[in-house]
Amino acid sequence: MKPHKRHRWGVFAIFFMFMLLHQSDKLLIGPLTTPIMETFGIDEARMGLVFSGALVVGALMYPLWGYLYDRYARAKLLALAALIWGSTTWLSAIAPTFSSFLVTRASTGIDDSSYPGLYSLISDYFGPQMRGKIYGLLQLTQPLGYMAGLLVATLLGSAIGWRRVFYITGSLGLVMAVLIFFFVKDAPRGQAEPELADLEEMGVYRFDKRIALGLFRKRSFRLLIAQGFVGVFPWQVITFWFFRYLETERHYSPDEVLMTMAPAVLVLALGYFVGGSIGDWMFKRTPRGRMLVSMVSVLLGAVFLSLTMNVPIANQGLFLGLLMVSALFIPFASPNVVSTVYDITLPEVRSTALAIESFIENIGAALAPLLAGVIATRASLYLAILLICVVAWLLGSVLLGFTAYLVPTDIRTLRQQMSERAALERARQQPAT
Hints:
mainly alpha
């Protein structure tokens, strides 16, 4: 039996809270980079190992999480992910040496790859015509989480120390594990697809190895994987190093960093929802819509970030203005890429599909913080941030353009498959004569 439609907004609210608090915990290490480096007496290259360690572990866990979500109850697995989040954060807080901190912080990557099941479950509550908005709203949690982490680091980091800050965020993970376990219900896979929306009862669809392997025959899916590989490099570099760039190379005080990053992050958060909404609007007019929006926004992000990074240090007002414009366009592609992955894949392998895409992109992106740290030690963070971001976005725009050209064929194939599945379900439910 399908869950009541009003329940979906309760699920959305819990998932929004889960992602917001989880992103705050995950991204908090960026604003706390300097005190952590001082505690262990390390340089940028060794701190880059800390960043990359969690990313490598997270990347390696994506295939396992994807399979488990498509095979078993997604809600209970998400509760487990929250439990792991809280536990590993506590372990990193008590690590006495750099070596133990490197290992425990890397272990926090286990739950970082748990989102494919969350997105898959949400796709069974909200149909394809509004998924861009929904994913855009959920992805608000990344910049808002960063903002929350920035505020916590600024207000509490110096007062209580970075270790106690991690105690707090780890405890919140344990609370979310309880909430998800008791209050989130799983949904039949595919129930929100328009072809199946009027069915009262649905068959049970689980992970199918043959269907999963067939994902690689979809040309648009292969291009999305390639785009993801290069597209996440800028996110990791900006997330982990931009705070320190403002401190050490633009010579901002903690208050100036806060006054610069706060409005930029708020605009960045708005960009997720605006990008997802425009993608939905374009998708209703052409199946290429989401990818066209993504391609243009990536190019604009590269242009405006280049202008921003070359503003003289003394002109803080112009730097902030251009940074906010850059921040608006940077996240446009994210909700549209996730929506497009689900526009071309069957419901029972959607966690696997997003996990594969995320696995490939994070294998490459895991090197980004370390690469930026190495470039910074030999040149500057300015060069590291600008070079990695602009090159990655230019390559990404080309790949998104090819995806826009090819994706209509794969979308039509999925809609035909869902129509055939709906016909079989109706025939199955008709009483025997």
